[in-house]
Write a structure and sequence with these properties.
This protein has 199 residues and is of the alpha+beta class. The protein has 2 domains: 2-77, 3-Layer(aba) Sandwich (Glutaredoxin); 86-188, Glutathione S-transferase Yfyf (Class Pi), Chain A, domain 2, CATH 1.20.1050.10. It is 55% helix and 7% strand. It is built from 9 helices and 4 strands; from the N terminus they run E-H-E-H-E-E-H-H-H-H-H-H-H. Strands 2-1-3-4 form a 4-stranded mixed sheet. Strand 1, helix 1 (10-21) and strand 2 (29-32) form a beta-alpha-beta unit. It comes from Leisingera daeponensis.
Length: 199
């Protein structure tokens, strides 16, 4: 199998963290590509008609894409430990929503010319990030502190990406329980092994 990904992508990182946590990292060739929505990598387009990462080329079927699809496939391949019902999936969806908003902020700031950047759009995406973090802190701490599942992996990758690209968001303020949990989770070997390069 071959995974097309970028080190900076939180969606791709989620897949690679899962590979580490399930002992499958040696089963997958990892192809690190440089890609953007404006200039997608040919390797990405050959694996995913939407030209988005991550994409997993399998030996026994067509390529899989969308991080949730890939993670579910790899979890099932490893024995199905990480998807523990609806709560796990809602937590993953919340984390992916935070990632979506943070990545859109990155595109706005990194790809759009400065004179055309839309402050109200950035504020709206930042509000989604902070709203998601507040919900995690208020409603999901008991789940986050439970047995490892895909929700925890996704949340950790989302928060790490916000810190990586948008530290000024200061999501920790008012979300101290979530910040404490993240500080501990981030020390896991799988998280340390998948840190993106310095911005």
């Amino acid at each position: 199998m071959r995974l097309t990904y970028s080190q900076a992508s939180p969606f791709a990182r989620k897949v690679v963290v899962l590979l580490h946590e399930t002992g499958q990292v040696d089963d997958v060739e990892i192809l690190d590509v440089t890609t953007t929505p404006l200039n997608p990598s040919p390797d990405v387009k050959s694996s995913n008609p939407l030209a988005k990462i991550p994409a997993l080329e399998r030996n026994d079927g067509p390529a899989l894409y969308d991080s949730r699809v890939i993670c579910a496939y790899l979890d099932e391949r490893a024995g199905g430990r990480l998807y523990g019902g609806w709560d796990s999936m809602v937590l993953e969806a919340t984390a992916d929503g935070i990632m979506d908003a943070a990545v859109l902020m990155s595109y706005e700031k990194r790809l759009r010319p400065e004179e055309k950047q839309w402050d109200s759009w950035l504020d709206a995406q930042r509000s989604k990030v902070l709203g998601g973090c507040a919900a995690l802190n208020a409603r999901w701490m008991s789940h986050l502190q439970g047995p490892l599942d895909i929700g925890q992996i996704a949340v950790a990758c989302a928060l790490a990406y916000v810190d990586f690209r948008h530290p000024e968001t200061n999501w920790c303020q008012g979300n101290e329980a979530l910040a404490d949990w993240f500080a501990e989770f981030e020390s896991r070997p799988a998280m340390q092994a998948t840190k993106p390069p310095a911005a």
